[in-house]
Every structure is written in structure tokens, then in C-alpha cells.
Design a protein that fits this description.
Blueprint (H helix, E strand, L loop, with lengths): L4 H15 L1 H43 L9
Length: 72
């Protein structure tokens, strides 16, 4: 007796993956492309963060110069 449609779908997918080498290859390709996309987005976010930090530092340096000389 099947308890839910989700269980039936997951069981069918697991059976397909277990029995079909072509299905495993396809899922593997999708997984690799998905991982590649996530890593690309991570790199873009890091680059954007570094650019913002550089611009912020340059702006702060213009407003408050760090080489004001000795203070008395």
C-alpha cells in the first residue's frame, strides 16, 4: 500500500537511478553543472564584495587621510 504520491515518485526515481546507467549519467551531469553554477556565483559574490571594500576604503581614505602626521 502506497502512503503518498511523493513517496511513490521518490521510489520510482530511486528505482530508475538504480537500474538505468543513462539516468545516472544525466543526473551526474546536472549535479556537476549545478555545482559549477553555485561556485561561479560564489566567486562573483566574493569579487563584488572585494570591489565594494576597495571602493569604501578609497572613499574613507579621501575623507579621513591616515597620514595626518604626528598629533600633539
Amino acid at each position: 500500500m502506497i502512503k503518498s504520491r511523493v513517496g511513490l515518485l521518490l521510489g520510482g526515481a530511486a528505482l530508475l537511478l538504480a537500474l538505468s546507467p543513462e539516468a545516472r549519467r544525466t543526473v551526474r551531469r546536472w549535479a556537476v553543472k549545478g555545482t559549477e553554477g553555485v561556485l561561479d556565483m560564489t566567486d562573483m559574490a566574493k569579487s563584488a564584495g572585494a570591489a565594494v571594500q576597495r571602493r569604501f576604503s578609497a572613499s574613507a581614505e579621501t575623507i579621513i587621510p591616515s597620514d595626518r602626521g604626528p598629533q600633539h
